[in-house]
Amino acid sequence: MDAPQPFIHLSNVAKTYRAQGRAVTAVSDVTFDVAEGEFVCLVGPSGCGKSTLLKMLAGLLNRDGGTMRVGGPGFDPGRDIGIAFQQPLLLKWRRVIDNVLLPAEILGLPRRATRDRARELLELVGLSGQEDRFPHELSGGMQQRVAIARSLIHDPKLVLMDEPFGALDALTRERMNLELRRIWTASGKTIVLVTHGVQEAVFLGERVVVLTAGPARMADEFTVTLPEPRALDVRATSVFGDYARRIYGRLGMA
Ligand code: ADP
Hints:
Layout: E1 8-19, E2 22-34, E3 39-43, H1 50-58, E4 65-70, H2 77-80, E5 81-84, H3 96-107, H4 111-124, H5 140-152, E6 158-162, H6 170-187, E7 190-195, H7 198-204, E8 207-211, E9 216-223, H8 238-250
Parallel strand pairs: 2-9, 3-7, 3-8, 5-6, 6-7
Antiparallel strand pairs: 1-2, 1-4, 8-9
Helix pairs in contact: 3-4, 3-5, 4-5, 7-8
The structure holds adenosine-5'-diphosphate.
Adenosine-5'-diphosphate binds next to strand 1, strand 2 and helix 1.
């Protein structure tokens, strides 16, 4: 029998931006697979092409080299992908719950059921009781969490996250790391998350794909095995430190 197809498959993927007579190669040769239900972190220095890669996975940008498959049979990118970008991009005139509901409205999902689900998701990200507030009444960290709830409202099979905690202070970021692990464990979704934080990538990912400075090239990938459920103090263990050291080494920073 044939081996099962990976949920995501990238082989020698490349992307060059062309504008005003200039060409910038953002991604030159990236190859990796993601299994269904896996949590994979892409790590690399700023400007190395991580966001470009994620946008190609989201179907927001075309690649111009290599092959890429996202999702199995029947996968509908419009319906089955949830996206959380670095900026929460909330609509300021809509209340928290109505921001979370936006993708469901666009997809025309049943109102009552999705409203209940929005409340559940807000509880999952620690925002119970904040449903009727407006974005400007929330801290940056709370807004990020609204964006994460919104990325899950239509129950997507695949969640793509681009530095979702990039703008947060260190403590809030740590709390969000814990919450995201909890959400992933509870939901079983496939998550691909871009970060420039090596520690964050090791803490969050089942696997870490290391990209070198631009244009993005695959440097290495690491399967991360840590005691579960992961707690923040795992970062002080020698196993964790060893993963981080090896990744810094691949980034030329050891
Ligand atoms: P990262 O997410 O790793 O910080 P990006 O994917 O945002 O990197 O960018 C990779 C490279 O592509 C950078 O050199 C950036 O300046 C360039 N780039 C990104 N978007 C565009 C665009 N729309 N047009 C031209 N160049 C771009």
